């Protein structure tokens, strides 16, 4: 252990996405190749001696306890756990979440060391994995609120590769088998279906971890929401969602004024007549079993929306992936789609 093929694969995957900035400590990790990367894992991250590194992926992550802070992470999957090697800036990003981390090394802040914090989710604690629409992200759920993490891969290939590796590793776990299902009688079988809502498609792995995929109703709900924002429920029958993609909105002016990031995460939805940008909650839905109340914000919040017929031109950058697109709209006075949507009937 490990095979040449695995070392080569992990080395190839050890690349930070070019559009995202990370701290010095994570840049150091991204510079490791081949056996040096495996030795780094065993010397600094692995918790037991005989665990094997199986997969490496760079991804933005969100935590259930800090749902507004998206942070870059190196995600390492071994035969024992999933490790999230995080930017040190995450600890200081949200003052209200300071109790989320045990900060014992605060005296090192002014030294020349570059610290990273590592969040560990043991495979034995894993309960379910929710795959997002069109494999753009996935959420890993453990036994408590502190053990829920969403990986925003923004890439169906990376999502698929991680899920396949995770299933393979879970197959190695020795867990007690599930009890035999009790045969239900006719009445209880039909009585339990009065919720009126179809459950998502579930695949229960041999390790008893649930892999939950979105069903067609989720797209239907999204289409209804989009039609509602268009102020035209009559068009719901003809409304087709052509594209759903997790992207970033480049925000030059506001970012420089407020010292915020240039890249604002957004969900882009394209229909046959409109282009929408939503702020989506990727971590709170579907509600975990222990949640006592619904989340503070809706799953989708409209950030911007324009009609395709007002689109004047699309400018494309010539750089490699990820591609930058600029949409230029004709702002026709009194015909702006956003006019109706910003009315607050209960506000001032």
From TrEMBL:
GO CC annotation, single: endosome membrane
Please tell me where this protein is predominantly located: cytoplasm
Q: Does the keyword Cytoplasm apply?
A: yes
**Cross-referenced Pfam families:** PH_NISCH_C, PH_PLEKHM2
Q: Where is the Nischarin C-terminal PH domain?
A: 241-347
Q: InterPro entries from the xrefs?
A: PH_domain-containing_M2, PH_NISCH_C, PH_PLEKHM2
Could you tell me what this protein is called?
Answer: NISCH protein
- Name its species: Eurystomus gularis
């Amino acid at each position: 252990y490990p095979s040449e093929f695995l070392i080569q694969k992990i080395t190839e995957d050890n690349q930070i996405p070019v559009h995202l900035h990370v701290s010095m400590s994570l840049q150091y990790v991204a510079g490791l190749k081949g056996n040096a990367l495996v030795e780094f894992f065993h010397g600094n991250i692995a918790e037991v001696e005989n665990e094997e590194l199986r997969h490496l992926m760079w991804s933005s992550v969100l935590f259930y306890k800090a749902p507004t802070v998206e942070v870059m992470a190196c995600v390492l999957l071994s035969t024992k756990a999933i490790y999230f090697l995080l930017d040190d800036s995450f600890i200081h990003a949200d003052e209200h979440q300071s109790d989320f981390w045990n900060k014992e090394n605060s005296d090192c802040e002014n030294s020349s060391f570059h610290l990273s914090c590592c969040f560990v989710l043991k495979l034995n604690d894993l309960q379910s994995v929710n795959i997002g629409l069109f494999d753009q992200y996935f959420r890993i759920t453990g036994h408590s609120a502190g053990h829920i993490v969403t990986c925003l891969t923004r890439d169906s290939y990376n999502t698929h590769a991680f899920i396949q590796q995770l299933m393979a590793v879970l197959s190695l776990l020795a867990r007690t088998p599930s009890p035999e299902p009790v045969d239900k009688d006719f009445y209880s079988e039909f009585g339990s279906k009065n919720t009126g809502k179809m459950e998502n498609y579930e695949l229960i792995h041999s390790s008893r971890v649930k892999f939950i995929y979105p069903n067609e109703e989720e797209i239907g709900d999204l289409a209804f929401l989009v039609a509602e924002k268009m102020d035209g429920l009559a068009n719901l029958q003809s409304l087709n969602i052509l594209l759903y993609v997790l992207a970033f909105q480049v925000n030059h002016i506001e970012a420089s004024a407020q010292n915020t990031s240039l890249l604002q995460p957004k969900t882009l939805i394209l229909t046959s007549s409109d282009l929408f940008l939503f702020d989506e909650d990727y971590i709170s839905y579907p509600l975990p079993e222990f949640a006592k109340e619904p989340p503070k914000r809706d799953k989708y919040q409209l950030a911007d929306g324009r009609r395709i017929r007002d689109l004047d031109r699309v400018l494309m950058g010539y750089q490699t992936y990820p591609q930058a697109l600029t949409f230029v709209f004709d702002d026709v006075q009194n015909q702006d789609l956003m006019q109706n949507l910003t009315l607050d009937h209960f506000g001032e």
